[in-house]
Amino acid sequence: MANKMTKGWFALFTVPLLVIFVTVVIIPFLMGIYYSFFDWDGIGANPMVFVGLENYTQLFSDQRFLDSAWLTVKFTILALISVNILGITFALLVTSALRTVNAARAMLFMPNLIGGLILGYIWQFIFTDAFKIIGESTGFGGVFFNWLLDPDYALYALVFVFTWQMAGYMMIIYIAGIQGISNEIIEAAKIDGASYWQKLRKITLPLLMPSITISMFLTLSFAFKIYDVNLSLTGGGPINSTELFALHIYNEIFGYGNYGFGQAKAVIFFIVVAVVTLTQVYITKKREVEM
């Protein structure tokens, strides 16, 4: 009887979530794969023409798609480095003997609470107006100018804003990892005369590998899938210099009306993200075992 009650409660809480997941994620995903084999503009009144793998072969000769892929890879690498280095730095800072540690944690985490669209518009104002004022008043016009208008700097502006948003979130994960390190190990290193940098390099960072695995996975997936900040901050400009994967696929489907072709790009996008993130998890998890 008790076993049936347990199964009943389990079903009560899991079945609705499972139905929602299947309805919102699995079914649209399978429909997207189906549509990727057709030439269609997404309008129900127009016929769908089966083209097989033509959409998939065509996308590799689409220069805009290849440029978007390269920009996404470049953005993801830069974001992966900046977010995690800053996240670890913040975590080490707020776990030290700092009087205002709680206030520091709250302030560093706060950017993550701001929606991506709003965040993009806020930083659009900063780059457009605030940077101009700072550059004119300080004389550092070569640094403080509107990065969003320069194709060579617009992507770095996007990396900067993404890092500002995500570093505090990764900080929380690294804080949990640092607090999980035994004080006895740290004290033993102090007794042996280890310096701060020796403790950091030989003890803290190796024991943080589980947190590094999680943080790198989240950073990779968020960076690859970035859309809202990309849309509101740069809109893919100037001259498509910041049109990343997600925004490019959206423009292909809803901007140019190439529904089937855009879905083929989305399927390739999914495969790339899955392969990269799973490979990263495999490598870093193996590193955990070795340490």
Task: Give a nutshell description of this structure.
The chain has a single domain, classed as Orthogonal Bundle (MetI-like fold). It contains twelve helices and two strands.
Radius of gyration: 23 Å
Shape: globular
Give a count of the beta strands, DSSP E runs of length 2 or more: 2
Structural class: mainly alpha
Oligomeric composition of the shown chains: single chain
CATH superfamily: MetI-like
Largest sheet: 2 strands, antiparallel
CATH class category name: Mainly Alpha
Uncertain spans: none
What portion of the residues fall into strands of 2 or more residues?
under 5%
CATH topology: MetI-like fold
Calculate the mean pLDDT score and round it. Answer: 88
Order of helices and strands: HEEHHHHHHHHHHH
Domain module count: 1
